[in-house]
Design brief:
The complex is a heterodimer. By secondary structure, chain A is of the alpha+beta class. Chain A is 34% helix and 22% strand. In chain A, strands 1, 8, 9, 10, 11, 12, 13, 14, 15, 16 and 17 form an 11-stranded mixed beta sheet that branches. In chain A, strands 4-5-7-6 form a 4-stranded antiparallel beta sheet. In chain A, strands 2-3 form a two-stranded antiparallel ribbon. The radius of gyration of chain A is 26 Å and the shape is globular. The two termini of chain A are 51 Å apart. By secondary structure, chain B is mostly helical. The chains are: A alpha+beta, B mainly alpha. The interface between A and B is large, with 65 and 54 residues.
Chain lengths: 535, 345
């Protein structure tokens, strides 16, 4: 009896062991894309207040812009809601002619007034993304006059101050705040004059290829295909995004087939998947740059020799080979790779002897003590650790202070740091906007409070650089622009600007072999419209 | 008679009022400490909202809108005033009222923690009794190794290993998340606990999918509790087994099983209540590491994310909930003492 019972139990157990993998074999639906990523930084999808990369990616699918960038080029654009556009002779007026067949998810037609109102709303609410429009000279007093609908399908944009119109065109193509909202629907949900701000945190009023079906914060976000999309309905019925922060969990789920796509995985997991050769891995370049910055408010970093010494103590090549794979690509210019205006890397290298000589000349033959602030996550903390080690070779004793994003960037915004390892800049590659972010500083006083300029944060100011960048904002001659871009980079190098680029951010996206048509956009505005599964 | 009755009720009412007052003071103190610590921590909730590249006018506008320009005591006063009206404020993380968020995430944690504590009790109690009854022998040593393993092994690692073996290799467990995608959002929410809600709806496919997803994280979480409960049980049992009444029972000819379970174990039930209550309370606080590995949208993740954002509305709401939990569990323990130990009535 005992023997019979044991035999039966053993047989059942053995059968379960063999069958279990089959019972658990996973496969995602043919017409749904299941994406795993961290949604920890996704807390609003209001286009006027969605500065994060995650929100941009979501909104790129829920909304449309007037135009889109063509293949990552800042000078070429393709129609979206605008079929065509004209620029006046003097470059001060742009006219956009909207297509007649575009509709919002509500069924309301997309009109020029919706576009004008959407941009006005950004300025009126005055969240972080309003900075872009204020930089052009728009104010609440002038925006309704300068950005207006001349009729149902014609939008006129007048530039308040002399500006290269190509800059405005590129902003309209790439800024997360330049999407077009359904004014009528938003105003139906307005409360206490908030222009629908409370409602739009978790709802949408777009015309994009997908609608928002459900969103449970830090859990799941579901987008469903908009059947009446003017550009043709998506082949995918749904895109379902799962909040998964742990990279290894993402990896296991991709391998099991429970996910089609994963974002934000650790380099080691991406490498492991790459080695297996069963997944597609795209490394998408971003506009954001990793850098080591020194505050010129803190001695001795106001001394150019000390800054040059620190520059010679960064192991650029070592970081690029060991720390930065799948995080970024070596870049030593304050401008993204691949841009025509970008000069080649100046060739900075780790040179401890040169650094020691410079430090001795600057009166620090024995080095000095300092601090490095950085985020408590890879690759920042690894870069900081490498820097600490190489600084020590020249006698600079650096202690590392780690923190969360708002701790680290908060200190930088307050100009309360010595050395910082961080990441920033425009999310899409553009020479002008990059230089304006990193190099430009119109007012170096503490109480200017222009923390949106990284140059101000590092207390770096140079009149010639400011002048060149101001001129770049209005110059329309391509040859002249190119010369000025080159001159800015040369002068920044001569001055050993305190924000030292080390790498341009890349974003690895892992997808299953049967996911086709995924084309990552450099502006974190990747659309799933052309994606499908080949099964 | 009237005087004695009044005196009786007066004593009872006085006792209840004193207890209520103590609970209130505890919670108030908890809130105050959390609030003031949260305000002096180097975390900037404004930056979380406006992003690191906002200009100063935008920053100042949001800073004032969040009431952060007011003196700390005034801010706390406003918070208490709103709290008294049932308004816990809105969460930065979600834009929703904090109370709604907690109502959404807490059932996920209750479900996980309850199953984990069941594992902990079902496995831990017998293991502790077994170890005590076999003190010094192989069984005791094995039991202690198992409990040491459960207590010492980082739960994060256990979670990852569990996923690797039972999900990736064997396919026995569901992956991250509470339920398979096919059923996501399909089960009508009654309690927020998928096992119960799917059973109520009669959707047995969804039920088994939810079960498949919850078993592994609950087991791993439970292992940690097994270790604690088992060790405490062993300790309490050893104390009882050394008592004279046990010797008397043995001499009287009672079976070993009767002596251990019928006498010794019954006498440690009250002590075990406290142990299990505390273990359950700590599970309800949120097992953030397990929730991270298994992408479980629970209380722990919510609290941790809110803390890192500097979202003090959400953090204070969570702290209040945790305070209530522990107060409630203590009161429940006190009530159950009277059930299990007549001497306390």
């Amino acid at each position: 009896m005992k023997s019979f019972r044991s035999t039966v139990l053993g047989t059942v157990f053995g059968a379960l062991l063999c069958a279990a993998p089959l019972l658990g074999q996973a496969k995602t639906p043919d017409d749904q894309l299941i994406v795993g990523m961290s949604m920890a930084n996704l807390f609003s999808i209001d286009p006027a207040n969605a500065p994060g990369l995650d929100a941009s990616g979501i909104n790129a699918n829920l909304y449309d812009t007037l135009i889109l960038r063509k293949d990552g080029s800042p000078d070429e654009h393709v129609p979206q809601l605008a079929e065509r556009w004209d620029v006046s002779e003097d470059g001060r007026q742009l006219t956009f002619h909207l297509r007649g067949d575009a509709r919002f998810h509500s069924g309301n037609p997309v009109t020029a007034e919706d576009v004008a109102w959407s941009l006005y709303r950004v300025l009126k609410l005055n969240y972080g993304l309003a900075t872009t429009w204020k930089a052009y000279g728009y104010t609440l007093d002038n925006i309704r006059q300068l950005i207006r609908a001349s009729d149902e399908s014609t939008l006129v944009i007048e530039l308040p101050q002399p500006t290269d119109p190509l800059l405005m065109i590129d902003t309209l193509a790439t800024s997360p705040s330049a999407v077009v909202l359904d004014r009528k629907t938003v105003l139906e949900h307005e409360k206490n004059g908030d222009l629908g701000a409370a409602w739009l945190v978790t709802n949408e009023a777009g015309s994009g290829p997908f609608t928002l079906s459900a969103w449970r914060a830090n859990d799941t976000l579901v987008m469903s295909a908009f059947a009446d999309y003017w550009g043709g309905a998506s082949k995918l019925k749904r895109v379902l995004i799962r909040h998964i922060t742990e990279s290894q969990s993402l990896r296991l789920m991709l391998e099991r087939g429970d996910l089609d796509m994963g974002y934000g995985m650790a380099a080691s997991d991406v490498q492991a998947l790459a080695a297996k050769g069963q997944m597609q891995i795209q490394t998408l370049p971003r506009g954001t740059m990793y850098y080591v910055a020194m505050s010129m408010k803190s001695a001795p970093f106001d001394d150019i020799r000390v800054r040059k010494a620190v520059r010679s103590l960064i192991d650029y090549q070592g970081l690029d080979k060991v720390v930065m794979p799948y995080y970024g690509t070596l870049n030593q210019q304050p401008m993204q790779l691949g841009l025509e205006a970008r000069l080649p890397d100046p060739g900075y290298r780790l040179d401890v002897e040169a650094a020691k000589r410079l430090l001795a000349e600057a009166g620090h033959p024995q080095g000095f003590k300092t601090t490095i602030r950085t985020l408590a996550e890879p690759p920042f903390v690894n870069i900081a650790a490498s820097l600490q080690s190489t600084l020590a070779q020249a006698g600079i004793q650096a202690s590392i202070i780690t923190g969360t994003g708002n701790q680290v960037y908060g200190a930088m915004r307050a100009r309360n740091f010595e050395i910082i390892v961080a990441r920033g800049a425009e999310r899409y590659p553009h020479p002008y906007f990059s230089l304006r972010t990193f190099v430009y500083n119109p007012d170096n006083r503490d109480d200017a409070g222009i923390a949106n300029f990284q140059g101000w944060r590092a207390a770096f100011q140079d009149a010639e650089l400011n002048s060149l960048i101001d001129r770049l904002g209005v110059e329309r001659d391509e040859a002249a622009k190119l010369n000025m871009y080159h001159r800015v980079q040369q002068r920044y190098d001569e001055l050993a600007g305190p924000i030292m680029m080390i790498s341009q951010m890349t974003d690895p996206v892992v997808s299953a072999a049967d996911v086709k048509g995924f084309q990552g956009a450099d502006a974190e505005a990747t659309r799933y419209l052309g994606v499908y599964k080949q099964r | 008679m009237f005087a004695s009755t009044a005196s009786f009720f007066g004593t009872r009412m006085g006792g209840t009022s004193r207890r209520f007052g103590a609970v209130l003071m505890t919670l108030l103190g908890l809130l105050a400490m959390t609030f003031f610590i949260g305000r002096v921590m180097p975390l900037d909730p404004v930056l979380a909202v406006v992003g690191p590249d906002a200009d100063s006018s935008t920053y100042d506008q949001v800073y004032q809108a969040m009431g952060l320009d007011r003196p700390l005591l005034v801010q706390f006063g406003y918070y208490l005033r709103d709290l008294a009206q049932g308004n816990f404020g809105n969460a930065l993380l979600t834009g929703h009222p904090v109370i709604e968020d907690i109502a959404r995430v807490f059932p996920a944690t209750i479900e996980l923690a309850t199953l984990a504590i069941i594992f902990g009790v079902v496995l831990g109690l017998p293991l502790g009794v077994f170890a005590a009854a076999n003190q010094g022998r192989m069984g005791d040593h094995l039991a202690r190794v198992v409990t040491l393993f459960g207590y010492s092994t980082p739960i994060f690692w256990l979670g990852m290993m569990g996923l690797l073996v039972f999900y990736a290799w064997l396919g026995w467990a569901g992956g991250a998340g509470r339920i398979d995608l096919a059923y996501d959002g399909m089960v009508p929410s009654v309690t927020g606990m998928l096992l119960i809600d799917s059973a109520i709806a009669g959707d047995w496919e969804a039920f088994f999918s939810a079960l498949k997803h919850i078993l592994l994280p609950a087991l791993i979480l439970g292992l940690n509790s097994v270790a604690y409960i088992s060790r405490m049980t062993r300790s309490f049992m050893l104390e009882q087994l050394s008592q004279e009444y046990i010797l008397t029972a043995q001499v009287k000819g009672l079976s070993r099983r009767k002596v251990i379970w019928g006498h010794a174990f019954r006498n440690i039930l009250v002590q075990l209540l406290t142990v299990v209550a505390l273990a359950y309370g700590s599970l309800l606080e949120g097992a953030v590491l397990i929730e991270t590995v298994f992408a479980w949208p629970g209380f722990g993740q919510y609290l941790t994310s809110s803390l890192l954002l500097g979202d003090m509305n959400a953090v204070m709401g969570c702290v209040l909930v945790i305070g209530f939990i522990f107060v409630g569990l203590n009161l429940l323990s006190d009530a159950l003492y009277k059930v299990f130990d007549p001497r306390t009535r």
